[in-house]
């Protein structure tokens, strides 16, 4: 279980992974034209290579990492569904599987220690100034899929994956899991005035028949200087794998307190948001959220 949670986290940060073994077949690649039409987006204004070229500089500046709860299940009736809760601070996330009580720590450096040779990334579309990439792996390791973007000062993504492992008793078990992640270099302050950001959210259902499908929507965030709080709203949510509207059309968080270092968080597992402002003059914001059965990540640019 530890290796799979590492897979789900590492996939978003790097588009690659270190674990070995196979897994169930991943979903077919996204149809870029259909996704553009469904979301009202434009053709990609960047390539995967463009984002990869600037990713190293962002990682070198990074001082912020957040992760959603990881949800998963296995094909072994003896092992129940599992939920791995993340508690993140700085560049470290403590991961805990609540049923067993097992916990461990993931750092950004851990997530970047990966085999880039397994990466297959391509630009799908551009929405609200952000180009989203689909990254896939599984040729020589666990199957996984990541949907997200490298901005200038941050990265955000939702990731799903499966891995088959041989247990000590000789049983071959396939684990499947999904989660969301974001990282970046913090502005280290609150905005000095009222401000808004617009961007995109990506996500997947935590459970149910459409779990591991890729969701996309619009992100709008607003900072109120008087209350020192943030309102975040994610709307127009669609299912890119099914080329249809998702049953949940809006997710929102109101009056989220913003700390003096520009980070913000509210709620707990299943209904929470955590993120931060990044770059000079709070040019970007990004983070993760969970609500109404969706786990997701978001990135947005200051208007």
Class per helix and strand makeup:
mainly beta
Low-confidence stretches: 1-7, 9-23, 114-118
Following the backbone from N to C, one meets helices and strands in this order, namely HHHEEEEEHEEEEEEEEEEEEEE
Mean residue pLDDT:
86
Tally of strands: 19
Question: Main beta sheet, described?
Answer: 10 strands, antiparallel
* Count of helical stretches: 4
Query: What distance lies between the first and last C-alpha atoms, to the nearest angstrom?
Result: 42 Å
Structure overview:
This protein is mainly β and 303 residues long. 13% of the residues lie in helices and 50% in strands. It contains 4 helices and 19 strands. The protein has helices at residues 2-14, 32-39, 48-61, 108-112; strands spanning 64-67, 70-74, 82-89, 92-97, 103-107, 120-127, 130-137, 143-150, 154-166, 172-184, 195-205, 215-224, 229-239, 244-245, 250-257, 263-268, 271-278, 284-291, 294-302. The strands form 2 sheets. Strands 1, 2, 3, 4, 5, 6, 7, 8, 9 and 10 form a 10-stranded antiparallel sheet that branches. Strands 11, 12, 13, 14, 15, 16, 17, 18 and 19 form a 9-stranded antiparallel sheet that branches. The longest helix has 14 residues, at 48-61. The N and C termini lie far apart (42 Å). Residues 1-7, 9-23 and 114-118 have low confidence and may be disordered.
């Amino acid at each position: 279980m530890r290796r799979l949670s590492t897979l789900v986290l590492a996939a978003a940060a790097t588009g690659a992974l270190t674990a070995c073994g196979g897994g169930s077949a991943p979903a077919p690649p996204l149809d870029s034209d259909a996704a553009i039409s469904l979301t009202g987006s434009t053709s990609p204004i960047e390539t995967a290579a463009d984002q990869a070229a600037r990713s190293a500089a962002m990682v070198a500046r990074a001082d912020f990492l957040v992760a959603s709860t990881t949800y998963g299940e296995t094909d072994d009736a003896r092992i129940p569904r599992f939920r791995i809760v993340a508690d993140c601070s700085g560049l470290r996330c403590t991961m805990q599987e609540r049923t067993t009580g097992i916990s461990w720590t993931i750092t950004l450096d851990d997530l970047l220690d990966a085999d880039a040779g397994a990466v297959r990334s391509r630009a799908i579309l551009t929405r609200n100034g952000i180009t989203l990439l689909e990254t896939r792996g599984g040729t020589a390791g666990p199957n996984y899929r990541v949907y997200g973007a490298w901005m200038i000062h941050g990265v955000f993504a939702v990731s799903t994956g499966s891995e088959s492992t041989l247990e000590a008793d000789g049983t071959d078990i396939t684990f499947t899991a999904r989660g969301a992640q974001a990282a970046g270099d913090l502005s280290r302050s609150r905005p000095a005035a009222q401000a808004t950001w617009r961007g995109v959210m990506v996500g997947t259902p935590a459970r149910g028949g459409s779990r591991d499908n890729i969701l996309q929507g619009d992100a709008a965030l607003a900072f109120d200087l008087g209350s020192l709080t943030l309102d975040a709203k994610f709307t127009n949510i669609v299912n890119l794998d099914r080329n249809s509207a998702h049953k949940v059309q809006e997710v929102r968080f109101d009056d989220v307190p913003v700390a003096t270092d520009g980070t913000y968080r509210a709620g707990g597992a299943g209904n929470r948001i955590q993120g931060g402002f990044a770059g000079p003059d709070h040019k970007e914001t990004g983070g993760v959220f969970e609500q109404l059965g969706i786990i997701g990540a978001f990135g947005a640019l200051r208007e």
